[in-house]
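step 4 of 6: structure.
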Amino acid sequence: MEIFYSDEVFDGFLRLPAEETAHCMRVLRHRPGDEIDVIDGRGTLYHCVLQEEEGAARHGKSVGQTALARIVGSEASWGSHQYRLTLAVCPTKNPDRYEWMAEKVTEVGIDTLAPGIGERSERRGLKTDRLHRILLSATKQSLKGAIPELLEPQTVMEFITGLGEASADELRLIAYCSDEVKPRAFIMELLAKIKAPEATPQVTVLIGPEGDFSPAEVQAAMAAGFVPVSLGSSRLRTETAAITAAEAVYLSFPFE
Amino acid sequence: MEIFYSDEVFDGFLRLPAEETAHCMRVLRHRPGDEIDVIDGRGTLYHCVLQEEEGAARHGKSVGQTALARIVGSEASWGSHQYRLTLAVCPTKNPDRYEWMAEKVTEVGIDTLAPGIGERSERRGLKTDRLHRILLSATKQSLKGAIPELLEPQTVMEFITGLGEASADELRLIAYCSDEVKPRAFIMELLAKIKAPEATPQVTVLIGPEGDFSPAEVQAAMAAGFVPVSLGSSRLRTETAAITAAEAVYLSFPFE
């Protein structure tokens, strides 16, 4: 099943952006009249009939060839999951590892990816353009309608203070390596406690950098309601810890 | 914590192979008398005192500089887990994806990785040398004493017929995409059933290629006691399905 993406849905029609149009009509050789499936990245899948390609200028600017498609049906919350998961993950030294993680957690199912720069982070930047493309491609590939939101990189402190009060059904978890707080609760046990079929569980997980969180960051997180959590007995790399946290939530709330 | 590897453990001493010696003495600048930690790849961690480097020839063959280390203590089953997991995973079209998966499932914790060539596999070979290096490095990195066994690539049919009878405490699972068998049991529910604190649960999971298993392969697997399993509602790539299966077992039997 081939999925396309459009960020321009209007009355009964949508427009494929230039890159998607090229892939649809040049690479896959779709023709006007063909049926195609298009997500809006916000959760809806549209069944469409491809129309003609359009000219190269919009708003007086050249944008390459784009294609119109007529909407003939739609499915809301397509490929959605039964939880809301925000992963705040510090950049890895090797950016490939972060990009791989972003792809995997998107396939598995997350809602927000927040790159957080820790006080001890060696890498302090990320190529968000590349990450956006990876999130879109993994969303299409895993048959989901909603692309995870990618927040702008911010410090871990900014992320924590920006969260505000936790709601009653929100679980905030912090995974870090140092042995200050022990024994820590195991993530599956904490998730089992919030299994409530009526409400959508909301989970936020903070994953530290290779050098771990600073004591000040841990303190700020605890003050904001984060619970220190164990991801099991293995020592996991940053990106593997992020994947493990996403899998724990996915496997705890498996069905739509 | 820096871990080295030796495949030559004898009475009270062990020998670091040339590559490990170079890393230990040239890169990390360890000197004779330094304490180092060495795994044998079969489950034991040895605390050692580094001795002098040795000459370059053994059995009449040049092998580069190797170093002896005197064993002063040891820990059996170091970084072990409370289950036995065999993952049989068909090669992915892109070999990077397979190597990444191998690293991640090693960090999480598996015992055997069996590359299985499906009838519909597009890729029919794998660089096992590279995979061996990746498994070793991920084992050291995640602080485990045992390197997962890497089987030689074989066909899925050979793998299934080679398994023999399932033991009473063994769970065999096959994850595939086609909708012939529905509803499938969810992996976490099947794993919950075998939770037995006294015995070590044994789990074997078959993960198909991009083109899925052939009907003959599915039939052969069912005849060998494999149970069709669901890994949740997301459509996962081959390597993500393998990671998800490993995480499901790891998160179900979290502690040593």
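step 5 of 6: annotate
 - Residues 84-252 of chain B form a domain with the Alpha/beta knot fold (CATH 3.40.1280.10).
 - Chain B has a mean pLDDT of 90.
step 6 of 6: archive
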